[in-house]
Amino acid sequence: MALLSLSLGSGILLVFVSIILYFVSYAVYNLYFHPLARFPGPVVMRATRAGACYRVMRGTMPFDMLELHKKYGNVVRVAPDELAFADPQAWKDIMGHRNGPEMEKWDKFYRPVEDMPTDIVNAKREEHGLLRRTMAHGFSDRSMREQQPIITGYIDLLIKRLDENGKAGTTPVDLAAWYNFTTFDVIGDLAFGESFNCLDNSDYDPWVKAIFQVARVGTIFQSCAHYPFLMRLLLSLAPKKLIDERQELMEKTKVKLRRRMESTKERPDLVEGLLKKRDEWGLTLDKLQTNSSILIIGGSETTATLLSGVTFLLLTHPAAMEKLTAEIRSSFKSEDEINFSSVSVLPYLLACLDEALRMYPPVPTGLPRVVPKGGATVCREFVPETSIVAVHQWAMYHNDKHFKDPFAFHPERWLNDPLFAGDHKEAFQPFHLGPRNCLGKNLAYIEMRLILARVLWNFDMQIAEDSLDWMSKQRIYNLWEKGPLNVYLTPRR
Ligand code: HEM
């Protein structure tokens, strides 16, 4: 008996020692013998992926990156196999068109669960090319001109709702929510053929609520993707209720899409192109559904985030607010003159939006790419194949090597003010560049210009006391976790 318990004890000890030895040798290999060993970074991050996962799940990774670049330089090893770059040249080297094979998106980030369906954002090169060519039609200048009445209709409704809910400046309204209602209704209409009715119901649709949950949970899945055991555990723990709810939302989306497909009228929306190629390319309803859904995610939260950000920045910088309000109110004789083409020529409006995109980029994190076979040169450094590389937007834009006085709101830097002549404008790529850049950039600018111009045309605004620290208290879980932005809106006399 004593012999048995002794051998059991030594067995457990052996397993324990082997596990420790495995982790120690794994860390020693990463620190001293890994192909990326020569790049600097904190020991914990160079030795194990857990260091980066912790920061991502804590919601501080984009902010931490600025400190890391300041301490370690333009290239930081943020995980054993991953480098972060803070040099503007990295945009072209990583995201740009290349002579050799493109840097593919990294599955562990884009499709952490293996059987996730593919869509235009996470598809590999060949499928992506096909989807992009087809969908590009809905983003053409002509389609956008034809979409104008749809978009304007929702902005009319937004202004009406703000007027009702603001009660002549006596009750604060949560502008972050109202911007989200508007952009979700617009994109719902353009991608599914019908609105989510958020503006009508003054509330989020369940589909929209689900997106916010997915963003936070997404960081957990992305982190667990590095540890198969944890991923299996996570998947097995997912409550049935959650899975059923998700399934129900998918079904609802398909019902919307079916209705859109049954309509024989040509519609200048974002799915018309996909529907036309449906039979030729054998696009299933599932494929249509995932691609329409990704348009909702990519095209609404981002725009609403920027609108909330620019509004907050203007409210906390009265001189800029005054200048922009004067530009808008002096450029039109009446509200119905505010349209796609007339807002596009207002220089201070664009400068304010760009400065907000710099200070509060809707895609603040690094979107990782895989170095292709044979390796690649990024910012004059050779990086071996299969390494992961990324540019972290928030950190790039708050780096004083690239932007003077980076933590202050200076729209003038985008208007050739000589004070900012030393800025590296090529560092600023909120929509990315290259073959996977944002397809909806023009639509986003149009929406942002129109909505902000119409809100400032109609209301004088004052920020509520409880929202004064709105921006500084936020964390980032793939997306900004925005709280309410409470503002008093007094109808303009
Ligand atoms: C301020 C608003 C927006 C910002 C900052 C933004 C930013 C971006 C970024 C950084 C990407 C690259 C994603 C990646 O590499 O994985 C992207 C892709 C994309 N965006 Fe946007 N976006 C905005 C608005 C929109 C809108 C309104 C739409 C319209 C539905 C849209 C549609 C797309 C699509 C379809 C892609 C995928 C393109 C491809 O992979 O070929 N975006 N966006």
From TrEMBL:
It comes from the Eukaryota. InterPro entries: Cyt_P450 (IPR001128), Cyt_P450_CS (IPR017972), Cyt_P450_E_grp-I (IPR002401), Cyt_P450_sf (IPR036396), Cytochrome_P450_monoxygenase (IPR050121). Keywords: Heme, Iron, Membrane, Metal-binding, Monooxygenase, Oxidoreductase, Transmembrane, Transmembrane helix. GO terms for biological process: toxin biosynthetic process. GO terms for molecular function: heme binding; iron ion binding; monooxygenase activity; oxidoreductase activity, acting on paired donors, with incorporation or reduction of molecular oxygen. The chain crosses the membrane at residues 6-29. Its cofactor is heme. Signal peptide: none annotated. The keyword Transcription regulation does not apply. Pfam families: p450 (PF00067). Heme binds at C438. CDD domains: CYP60B-like. The keyword Oxidoreductase applies. Belongs to the cytochrome P450 family. This is Cytochrome P450. It comes from Cercophora scortea. The lineage of its organism: Eukaryota, Fungi, Dikarya, Ascomycota, Pezizomycotina.
